[in-house]
Predict the 3D structure of the following.
Amino acid sequence: MSLYKRLHDMQTAPAEGGASTTGTPRRDPVIDELRQRIHHTLIDDLGPILYDKRLSEEDLRKKVHDQLHAALIQERAPLSAADKAQLIQDVSDDILGYGPIDQLLRDENVSEIMVNGPNKVYVERGGKLEKDTGITFIDETHLRRIIDKIVGQIGRRIDESSPLCDARLPDGSRVNAVIHPLAIDGPFLTIRKFSADPLQIDDLIRFGTLNAHAARFLQACIVGKLNVVVSGGTGTGKTTTLNVLSSFIPADERIVTVEDAKELQLHQDHVLALESRPANIEGRGEITIRDLVKNTLRMRPDRIVVGECRGGEALDMLQAMNTGHDGSLTTIHANTPRDTLSRMETLTLLAGFDLPIRAIREQVASAVNLIVQLSRLRDGTRRITHITEVQGMEGDVITLQDIFLFDFAAGVDENGKFRGQLKATGVRPKFVEKLADLGIRLGPEVFTPGDQAKRQVASRSVGR
């Protein structure tokens, strides 16, 4: 058991002779003070060595362990062998890893970690937020050092002149950090974890995010080089879905990905990953998503995958989709397919060109073939709620047609879980003929509404 967890158990254990009368958590001052003292001693003694890139990880770990053993001998602390070994492990995590949150990063059940200051750590498990009272940092300096380490690993910086930073962990987990003077009672650290083994389409089917027919339909759309936009709110699973859809791209195609911080985990061989770069301390050298999207057009891509359109790069993405780069994919923050179109119009205007709204809508209508809408429901699950075809223009309005819809009418069960699932509306999209010309054929069962499909299966069974 982690020393951090044992400290928590000691703090919350009832007093001798019965339950705690005050309700105030009890602490073991000896172990707690010892951990803090040794931690600060090692930081003071090792100093710049911790950031010396000339040292290998093995050499650095050996120096830390040697210094730890020396510090424990000097302290002459009355610890058992097990307590001593655990103390060495936990302080090593503080110095060499990501401190108290290391154990949360290793916990497969934790999907998000939210540090609201040195003594407040929240986690998301199963789509629900909970406070992890067993995890604390020593002080603000300890938390700030962990943030600096994460940010520095990818060559970015965070300081008073630039107190906001987006970064990533080596495994692709997304990191956001905010420090003083913006973060009151901070620093704040938010980590959205990525699985070491990326989710596949079978996993999404098993979770109920979509069904087998919708998965077959989306696979056909990706292989058939349709332009797809994945939309949804924050934390709905857009990047995960984009990663799964990208896995359908044939292995013999050249793929260029563009992201703020690299998160996509594609398994094809011919993948070129581009990452934006913030300005340096002098305010120079910034490379934006828009710069990267423009550059991809000179890289002879078969597919362009943009992690998220949130600015003027939406115009460049539309132009790429309209000029022969079919099969492109991106994500956008929006709550419905119709909102997705409105947001694309707004983002296009951010490119700085005074374009008529009708011209923008014509660009969107001709570029985008499909919108995949995700939502995070009240029960904590993430579901695809719409798969919608962009059919074209009627007057000044872009026409949409839902191909699959989530069945909210099914209600919820006794545990508050939604019973509904994604169902076909019975409408065949116009681009089915285009897919058929490419040799990609979708049977009528893909577009048959759920209840009608069940009746067809039942009638065939009776016939046999």
User: Anything to note?
Assistant: The two ends are 60 Å apart (CA to CA). The first helix runs from residue 3 to 12. Residues 139 and 261 are 28 Å apart (CA to CA). Confidence is low (pLDDT under 50) at residues 1-27, 453-464.
